[in-house]
Structures are given as C-alpha cells and as structure tokens.
Design brief:
Structural class: mainly alpha
Shape: globular
Number of helices: 6
Order of helices and strands: HHHHHH
Number of strands: 0
Radius of gyration: 18 Å
C-alpha cells in the first residue's frame, strides 16, 4: 500500500479543525471559532518552521535507500500530526459530550501515530526520527495551545491548585 502521507496529514488536520472549530462549546460565536482555527493554523506554520530549523541544525540522515535526500530528523510529518493531536485533544477534553471527552484525544493520538509510522514503512524515516518528531510536535502543540489560546497546561493547573490550597491552609 502506497501511502501519500502529505495528503493524509492535510486531510487529518482539515477534518480535525472542522470538527473542533466550535471549540466544543455550543455558545462559541462564529468569530471565536474563526479565531481559534486561525490561531491553530498559525501554530502549525510555527511548528513547520521549527521542524525545518531542527532538520537543518541537526542534519540527521534518512535511512539507507530512502527516496529523499534531505535530513530526516525530526520527521516533520510526525511533528505536524502530533502538533494537531496535542492542540485539538485539549479542546476535546472540554466537550460537554462524554464520548468526545473520553475518546477523541486517544483517537487523535492514535491516528497521528499510525500515519507517522507509515513514514517508517515507506522507508523515509527511522522509528527514532518519527518518535522525535512526535515528541517535538506534541510539546510545541501544547505550548502553542497554552500561550496562543490561553489554556494552562495540566501541570500548571495542578501546581496552582496546590499553591492556592497551601495559601488557604496557612491563612
């Protein structure tokens, strides 16, 4: 099976953005949905730039026999897929629909992993190059989401709750 992963990345990103454009809230206005989509797409451009800079700085060769000759680490496809999975799973966790809250984040990450591994199967990357791209993409996605969209990452919310609890106990 010949997998065109570039088309797959675009299709997954497009479908995911359309499905999450409401930010999973019934009260979201069309302008806030548009702003959300533009913000995530701007983050995708930043993520792609970071991937290109890392590839040029690290210059890790692709596997022997690869049809491509540019550096292979990190996999920019995996970075893009995991960027979207990270950003959009944060939206899914706010859904008032229990099934979406429970299953959408796992489904997004599973789709990202399967499509990323297609690059290994096609001989274009090693497992390490795809794994590195996945890690970088998930980190950039979560950071972009926390800075650009204003979501506090889960670890920050937990430390804030602990700080507030400690201050309340001290008072």
């Amino acid at each position: 099976m010949d997998v065109n992963t570039k088309d797959s990345v675009c299709a997954v990103a497009g479908v995911a953005l359309v499905l999450t454009a409401r930010e999973w809230r019934a009260d979201a206005s069309s302008s806030s949905r548009f702003a959300f989509v533009v913000t995530i797409l701007a983050g995708a451009v930043v993520n792609a730039f970071i991937a290109k800079v890392l590839k040029l700085a690290l210059r890790v060769r692709r596997p022997d026999g690869s049809a491509l000759s540019d550096p292979g680490f990190p996999s920019s496809h995996a970075m893009s897929l995991f960027f979207f999975a990270s950003c959009l799973s944060a939206s899914a966790r706010r859904s008032p629909i229990t099934a979406i809250t429970a299953y959408a984040p796992s489904a997004l990450y599973a789709a990202a992993a399967l499509l990323s591994m297609a690059r290994v199967r096609a001989g274009l990357h090693t497992v390490g190059q795809v794994t590195g791209g996945a890690a970088f993409g998930a980190i950039v996605g979560r950071l972009w989401r926390s800075v650009a969209v204003g979501d506090a990452p889960p670890w920050a919310a937990a430390s804030t709750e602990r700080s507030a609890g400690g201050a309340a106990a001290a008072a």
